[in-house]
Amino acid sequence: MPRDLATSQYCWLLIVQKDHINLHEWLDRDSPQFNKTLKKAIFHYVPRTKHEGRLKVCIATSEMKAAAWKYGHHSQVLLDGTFGISDKKMLLFIVMGIDKANHGVPLAFLLFSALALNQKTAAGYDTDILKRLLNAWRSAMGTVPISKSSESPSPLHPLLSIQSLKPHLQ
Asked: Tens of pLDDT along 97-110?
């Protein structure tokens, strides 16, 4: 272990604070660890505040926001889900648009924890959480004029279909 953690190049590996405390410190303007770039990119943050709750962090950089208007407005967007990205039961969904070369372009990252009582990380999501986070993304995108000659603003309108993830009970 290094003698001085504050100057060690590996100090970030040795921090023993809980993840949500680190995140809160990075987003709190009064904290010495405040990160202006991260604060600007995070459009939706809900800390886990109770045992049954979830941590929710949604991220879109300015480049991702520009790409959302270019590749996601009145166009099909895709969700790519990754389960268990850490030992903290975190789920990550990447909202992607498709460029002219048919390559996926990331438009937003939707990161959230599984509920504490879930034994499997993949059981930590359903259409409700995805709808809420996608609506937060759409709201964060604001509006853009329909055309340069128009004065009427238009909200982001991605084309997306979410199939029910729960089996139908009869």
From this structure: 999 999 999 999 99
